[in-house]
Design a protein that fits this description.
13 strands; four-stranded antiparallel sheet; six-stranded parallel sheet; 430 residues; alpha/beta; 17 helices; 48% helix
């Protein structure tokens, strides 16, 4: 079996390696191809990956290449974890928002839109390569904004099986189980536990947790509320959570507490991108240590908790036809009544050889549904703008976004966005 990782020079890659090494008895990987357009980065991360695998008896081979087509050819699975413009572009995205008095974040608001415009054409080009060289391989996308990228794939590369993946749901599930302090093997419990989540990527609400069929949600909410009420610097207010009776995805803080988030930006630098750049510099230095064969503890500061778990669990469930339930981003195909069938949602899906099948779900209540509809309109418009290079569509996307600029400021923000990232947005600069 061959797996291609596009963006193999990512600092997350050692996490992915660990996940494959933990599943060699179930997932018969023989060739792992790491692709990156930065030779120096690929050499450091890739050679560390090779040492990790060699230290475990070389159950599979790790190949390094800058040739994407060579890596994709004949692959059973293709995963994407790339960043167009690298970390400096993320920094530009964050400060773009700050410059205009808007939220500065890499997946939400104007920064998320800028990232999507850069990323979607590249992902669609990868899909084109797969159509020619690996037509039966699923595309498992970890690249942010994961939901929006998957939306673009479903609309403009619908012949490719594609699924968007995020580590937020599995991280939330693990934290809930840990808070309940249930006796027994934590990893086994996580496998048997089912989290009910619905919404968009980075705009979803957790609303149920079962373990072996037992409803644990009342205890989850009780513990979560107690923790918030005892914390003088809690990130959520109890009244909102009580009325929702759900736990919002962390990124909903940008919508629920926009003023607070804007205030926090005023103390930059460092922004989160600048923090991550410092973390990555240290990680790469550690990866380069010739005797190192295990990921350093500092990798968890990078923000990729349970990345290896969700990535390899998903591929394993598909390959072995396990019928497991995983929360991923896919077109909902009518299983959520009253919402358009073609909307890509983050939701529980059955994963087996048939693919990634969304499971029937009760629609979100009106207090959430309106926000979802508004942001989905923005996503559809952004995907279309990225595909066509149509500035008017990009303008409409900013107009639709709840965290976008006032109507009379859109032109200034859009011009700034497109000029800042001109090198990576050729579709807008004929």
């Amino acid at each position: 079996m061959k797996v291609a990782v596009i963006g193999g020079g990512s600092s997350y890659t050692p996490e992915l390696i660990n996940g494959f090494l933990e599943r060699v008895d179930q997932f018969p990987l023989k060739e792992l191809w790491l692709v990156d357009i930065l030779p120096e980065r690929l050499e450091i991360v890739g050679q560390f990956a090779q040492r990790m695998v060699q230290a475990k008896g070389s159950p599979f081979q790790v190949h390094l290449t800058g040739d994407r087509r060579r890596a994709i050819a004949g692959a059973s699975y293709v995963t994407t974890q790339l960043r167009v413009g690298w970390m400096q572009a993320r920094c530009e995205d964050e400060y773009l928002g700050r410059r205009h008095g808007l939220v500065g974040q890499e997946t939400t608001g104007v920064g998320g839109m800028a990232k999507a415009l850069r990323t979607i054409p590249v992902i669609l080009d990868i899909a084109s390569n797969m159509r020619e060289l690996a037509p039966d391989a699923p595309l498992v996308n970890f690249t942010n904004p994961a939901g929006l990228v998957t939306e673009a794939l479903s609309r403009y590369a619908s012949d490719i099986t594609a699924v968007g993946v995020c580590n937020v749901p599995i991280t939330a599930k693990m934290m809930m189980l840990d808070a309940l302090d249930i006796q027994g093997d934590a990893a086994a419990q996580a496998q048997r536990a089912k989290l009910l989540t619905l919404g968009l990527n980075h705009l979803s609400w957790h609303r149920g947790l079962t373990l072996d069929g037992e409803d644990l949600w009342p205890q989850v909410m009780e513990r979560f509320l107690a923790e918030i009420e005892s914390d003088d610097e809690a990130e959520w207010d109890p009244a909102t959570l009580r009325t929702l009776h759900m736990i919002p995805n962390y990124y909903l803080q940008y919508f629920y507490y926009t003023g607070h988030k804007l205030a926090l930006q005023e103390v930059w630098p460092p922004s989160r991108a600048e923090e991550v750049m410092a973390i990555e510099k240290e990680l790469l230095a550690q990866y380069a240590e010739p005797d190192r064969t295990e990921p350093p503890e500092g990798l968890m500061q990078r923000g990729g908790a349970y990345y290896s778990t969700i990535a390899t669990q998903l591929l394993n469930a598909h390959f072995n036809d396990l019928g497991e339930t995983h929360i991923v981003n896919v077109p909902q195909r009518g299983v959520v009544p009253s919402w358009p069938e073609d909307w890509v949602l983050e939701m529980p899906c059955r994963v087996d050889l048939d693919g990634f099948t969304p499971l029937p779900a009760v629609p979100l209540p009106p207090v959430c549904a309106g926000l979802v509809a508004q942001v989905k309109a923005y996503e559809i418009l952004t995907a279309a703008a990225a595909f066509t290079g149509d500035r008017d569509l990009a303008y409409r996307a900013l107009l639709a976004h709840p965290l976008g600029p006032p109507a009379d400021k859109i032109t200034a923000v859009l011009d700034d966005m497109l000029l800042t990232h001109k090198a990576y947005l050729p579709q807008f600069w004929p």
